[in-house]
Amino acid sequence: MKKLIDIDAGLVIQQCSDVLHILSNPKRVHILLILSEGEQSAKELMYRLNSSQSGISQHLAKMRDGGIVSTKRYGLFVRYHLAMPEIKRLLIEVEEFLKLGGGRRRRYARGRDIKRSR
């Protein structure tokens, strides 16, 4: 039988994994960066990202289901905003991580450098 702390830790790990999975798509990260500037409609995002409305809507639905974005309705218009403002801080931290050299391993793991070390 699992201890209560193990169950809670497992839940937190799963939730982190779910959020990071949603953020694993570059288009969704781009949408989040735009939304960090303020509310946008799907149509505005479509024009800013030069993407189809159906594609943007699918990304927004996935992020809405994950609790990362939420909507406000103004009559017939729906506008999207960050439901989790902490996501902006997370993206800034990832950018800092990359500036400090994080993420380099992945590039080498796919290239010739990894073959030489065998």
How would you describe this protein?
This protein has 118 residues and is mainly α. The protein has seven helices and three strands, in the order ααβααββααα. It has helices at residues 4-22, 26-35, 42-49, 53-65, 86-99, 104-110, 112-116, and strands at residues 40-41, 69-74, 77-82. A three-stranded antiparallel beta sheet has the order 1-3-2. The longest helix is centred in the N-terminal third of the chain and has 19 residues, at 4-22. The radius of gyration is 18 Å and the shape is globular. The relative contact order is 0.11. Mean pLDDT is 84; it is low at 108-118.
Which keywords apply here?
3-stranded antiparallel sheet, mainly alpha, Arc Repressor Mutant, subunit A, 118 residues
